[in-house]
Amino acid sequence: MPERFVIHVDMDAFFASVELKRRPELRGKPVIVGGAGDPAKRDVVSAASYEARRYGVTSGMPLRTAYRLCPGAVFLPVDFEKYEEVSGEFMDILYAFTPLVESFGLDEAFIGVGEVGEVGEVGVEKGTDFFEKALNMARDIKKRVNEELGLTCSVGIAPNKLLSKLASEMKKPDGLFVIREEDIESTLKDLPVRRLWGVGPRTEKRLNYLGINTVGELASVPRLHLERNFGTVFGRTLYEHSRGIDESPVVPFHEPESISREVTFDEDTSDTYLLKGILYELTKEVVGRLRQAGYRSRTVTIKVRYSNFETITRSRTLPELTDSMNDIWTCALGLFKKVEFPRDVRLVGVKVSGLQGGKEGKRGK
Ligand SMILES: [Mg+2]
After folding, report:
1. H or E stretch covering 318
2. What is the tens place of the pLDDT at every residue in 325-363?
3. Model's pTM, two decimal places?
4. Are residues 10 and 118 in the same domain?
5. Whether 120 and 9 share a structural domain
6. 19 is catalytic
7. Are 132 and 178 in contact (CB under 8 A)?
8. Same domain, 92 and 176
9. Could you report the per-residue pLDDT of 217-248, keeping only the tens digit for each?
């Protein structure tokens, strides 16, 4: 097997950091991004700055709970459009180094170094020190992300994806951590099982119940025992992951940030009945494409351009991911009803973003 390394790049507290960058006066303060930014509403935390995390605030927690833990925090609304824009700039930096980039959500990516085979790497010279190459690339990526985006990221380098993701978490924020073949066992052994990819709260609970708390303990369990308790496929995954084994390839794949459709009219119109009908057709197309690609979306945006070229957009983030025409149309229509029509309209459009899922290049988390 050819020598290869995987670099995992993970932006630090991404949403919160993007907000802090455009609101430098909030630096050093606990900042919590979630929903409409109102802790009285039933939204959840999308991101928390490191200062807020110190109070025990974590992503996915209800905003109310976060408020209870950290009443002095600054609460901000989610601005997906902005995060997608910065995410695009982040991915562009990575693509400047190599085409072997597999994006994973808005703020993470895997990069293959030295992979020869299916995908192949162009211009690899014989005798290339791939470790040296990966290390230099990791340092340069951190430098460029910092200089060009004004943000920090944490980077892990390891022989495979599983370990590279673990490595990037080791020294957050602004970290660079390497797991080499010979360090795998000693690095994994004392980590709680929860740190392994694929081990969520439920699996953790069952493992703990079976007396397995650390990755080292998990690695000492016979495979058959794991397969009996967790099924053949997942049992085997646990067995392999506990030993740092992961042969999944880095699949160059760029998730679409959004799916949208818009039309410009031959003749400007202020007929809201007509506009509504067109918006409905556009929404149907967008939802069709969303479903076909196997995505679900979080945010719906409509766009209206008036005859004087003034353009407005209105967005709403849904409480949960959806690919339902009913949900998405209800949302788009609600936004449309709030738009005023002081003059004729030359364009309408609809967009779904905050996409998750997808049929290609995905792995369960
Ligand atoms: Mg991140």
Report:
1. strand 311-322
2. 999 999 999 999 999 888 899 999 999 998 888 764 433
3. 0.70
4. yes
5. yes
6. no
7. no
8. yes
9. 999 999 999 999 999 989 999 999 999 999 98
For residues 336 and 285, state if they share a domain.
yes
In our burial notation (b when 16+ CB lie closer than 10 A, e otherwise), range 218-236 reads bbebeeeebbebbeeebbe
Which range of residues forms the domain containing residue 49?
Answer: 15-78
Task: Provide the residue count of the chain.
Answer: 365
Expressed in angstroms and rounded, the spacing between residue 169 Cα and the centre of ligand 1 is: 9
Write the pLDDT tens digit of every residue in 117-135: 444 444 555 667 889 999 9
- The alpha carbon of 254 and the centre of ligand 1 are apart by a number of angstroms equal to 17
Tell whether 249 is covered by a domain.
Answer: no
What is the whole-number distance in angstroms between the Cα of residue 186 and the centre of ligand 1?
25
Residues around ion ligand 1, judged by CB within 5 A, are 10-11, 14, 107
Which of the residues 19, 102, 108, 257 is marked catalytic?
Answer: 108
Strands 101-103 and 108-113: antiparallel
Distance 231 CA to ligand 1 centre (A): 31
CA of 184 to the centre of ligand 1 (A): 23
Instruction: Give the total number of structural domains in the chain.
Output: 4
CB 218 within 8 A of CB 243: no
Give the CATH number, domain containing residue 234. Answer: 1.10.150.20
State in Å: Cα 27 to ligand 1 middle. 18
